[in-house]
Amino acid sequence: MKRISIILLSMLSLSGNLIAQASENSVEMADKLRADGKIWVVVAVIAVVFAGIAINMLRIDSKLKKIEKDLNIK
To answer: What parts of the sequence cross the membrane (predicted)?
Structure first.
């Protein structure tokens, strides 16, 4: 669990730099989506996908811990 937390924190710290770089160069498609208000749909879809991946990883981790406990593997 600590490893996942460290990975998530490092990804969050790196994403701040990417957002700062993206604001320097304007992308025409993003401007059009932002003007139409559809950018929030894109953000919502990306958030749902990442949430699904995170939930799936946590489920797999808990199942793996249960199997390890049953087999007495440390």
So the answer is: 38-58
Tens digit of each residue's pLDDT (9 = 90 or more) over 26-68: 678 778 777 888 888 889 999 999 999 999 999 999 999 999 8
Question: Which domain range does residue 21 map to?
Answer: 2-71
28/4 Cα distance (integer angstroms): 35
- Residues contacting residue 68 through CB under 8 Å, at least 6 positions apart: 74
Buried b / exposed e across 12-47, counting CB within 10 Å, b at 16+?
A: eeeeeeeeeeeeeeeeeeeeebeeeeeeeeeeeeee
Number of compact structural domains in the chain? 1
